[in-house]
TrEMBL record:
<dbReference type="InterPro" id="IPR002563">
    <property type="entry name" value="Flavin_Rdtase-like_dom"/>
</dbReference>
<dbReference type="GO" id="GO:0010181">
    <property type="term" value="F:FMN binding"/>
</dbReference>
<dbReference type="InterPro" id="IPR052174">
    <property type="entry name" value="Flavoredoxin"/>
</dbReference>
<dbReference type="Pfam" id="PF01613">
    <property type="entry name" value="Flavin_Reduct"/>
</dbReference>
<comment type="similarity">
    <text>Belongs to the flavoredoxin family.</text>
</comment>
<keyword id="KW-0285">Flavoprotein</keyword>
<protein>
    <recommendedName>
        <fullName>Flavin reductase like domain-containing protein</fullName>
    </recommendedName>
</protein>
<dbReference type="InterPro" id="IPR012349">
    <property type="entry name" value="Split_barrel_FMN-bd"/>
</dbReference>
<feature type="domain" description="Flavin reductase like">
    <location>
        <begin position="14"/>
        <end position="158"/>
    </location>
</feature>
<dbReference type="GO" id="GO:0016646">
    <property type="term" value="F:oxidoreductase activity, acting on the CH-NH group of donors, NAD or NADP as acceptor"/>
</dbReference>
């Protein structure tokens, strides 16, 4: 984690703009049990204040924990963590603690105490749930305000992903379905026509 640096919140949307598969972390406010699951469906929805939306099915334990605690973490896994991403998206934390089962090192976030993975991620966002009961019930969509963000400066620096120059094992993952992923590729910078 020595390469992690705070990300200016005005750049938080850039962490999710390109649609990486993410890991959603959460904690039971009563038992303090922790959890992590994979999510392919997340997006920024506002620049300032920085807000995001994630789609979490009612069957996921994560959904219950976020609605009970009012908080969640978003960790962006690296290409080297494809197996772990698929694994935590294939079993429920209701049955077994995934942090122990998959030997995942983590720390608690400073403000909301959501778990943040200490290995295999390029960025973290700490989010406070913005309760929208209708959207949650009807569309399984949860909105959150990003209250802090950090990223590995070797792959995200000054609001930009460094896919042209960084180590490809640090690239983001994008789910195709069925456990297949592509990793982020060549940057194309649009020029004025
Ligand atoms: C790559 C990948 C992406 C996934 N994306 C989502 C998603 O966007 N939303 C969702 O509700 N479930 C998604 N899942 C399924 C959950 O991760 C899965 O149901 C998980 O076991 C829930 O864990 P939990 O019960 O511990 O919360 C995905 C699974 C994988 C492997």
């Amino acid at each position: 984690m020595s390469h992690f640096r705070p990300v200016d919140l005005k750049h938080a949307s850039r962490l999710l703009n390109h649609g990486p598969t993410v890991l959603i972390t959460s904690r039971d406010p009563l038992s303090q049990k922790r959890n992590v699951m994979a999510a392919a469906w997340s997006t920024p929805v506002e620049f300032a204040p920085p807000r995001v939306a994630i789609v979490i099915d009612k069957s996921a334990w994560t959904r219950e924990l976020i609605e009970a605690s009012g908080a969640f973490g978003i960790c962006i896994p690296t290409a080297a963590s494809a197996d772990l991403t698929y694994a935590v998206g294939s079993v429920s934390g209701r049955e077994e603690d995934k942090f122990s089962r998959f030997s995942i090192p983590y720390r608690d976030s400073q403000t909301l105490s959501v778990p943040l993975l200490e290995e295999g991620c390029s960025a973290w966002l700490e989010c406070r749930l913005l309760p929208e009961v209708g959207a949650q019930q009807k569309y399984d969509t949860l909105f959150g305000e990003v209250i802090s963000a950090s990223a590995d400066e070797r792959i995200f620096n000054r609001g930009r992903w460094l896919f042209d120059s960084a180590d490809p094992t640090l690239f983001t993952l994008h789910h195709l379905g069925g456990g297949g992923f592509v990793s982020a590729g060549r940057i194309i910078t649009a020029k004025p026509l």
